Amino acid sequence: MDDPFISCPYNSTHRVPRSRIQAHLVKCQEKCPALYICPFNATHRGTENEIKEHVKDCPTRLAMFPDQRPPQVTGDLTTPKPYMQADYLPETDPNHEVWDD
Ligand SMILES: [Zn+2]
Ligand SMILES: [Zn+2]
Predict the structure, then answer these.
(1) How far is the CA of 39 from the centre of ligand 2 (A)?
(2) CA distance 100 to 70
(3) Which ligand is nearest to the CA of 60?
(4) What confidence tens digit (pLDDT) does each residue in 11-22 have?
(5) Where are the domains of the chain?
(6) What is the spatial distance between Cα 87 and Cα 63, in angstroms, rounded to a whole number?
(7) pLDDT for res 85
(8) DSSP states of 13-62 as a string?
């Protein structure tokens, strides 16, 4: 049936049938330290020390901010800092509405 093996996010060498990943994660979570997530790319994960080292030469960071120094890595890495906020502003004035009457 359609039950492909997927990689465990805690350890990519763990290949688990998708139908069993939930149960596997519960067990794996107990054995593995909580993973820190790279602020630049949520698929980059590792221990606190690994991520602290990783952000210094994260390929995603270097692609996005080639001149920027790495950020201070603090406790919560799951919330990326809004570096790109200005880029996400809508191009048109959000208060400018077209009234169709
Ligand atoms: Zn696992
Ligand atoms: Zn990264």
Answers:
(1) 7
(2) 48
(3) 2
(4) 889 999 999 988
(5) 1-32, 33-75
(6) 16
(7) 47
(8) T-EEEGGGHHHHHHHHHHHSPPPEE-SS-TT-EE-HHHHHHHTTS-HHHH
Read off the amino acid at residue 96.
Answer: H
For residues 15 and 11, what is the distance between their CA atoms, to the nearest angstrom?
9
User: How are beta strands 36-37 and 45-46 bridged, if at all?
Assistant: antiparallel
Ion ligand 1 residue ranges (Cβ < 5 Å): 8, 10-11, 14, 28
Residue 79, token pair as written in the block: 């919330």
Distance 32 CA to ligand 1 centre (A): 8
What is the distance in angstroms between the CA of the first residue and the CA of the last residue of the chain?
Answer: 55
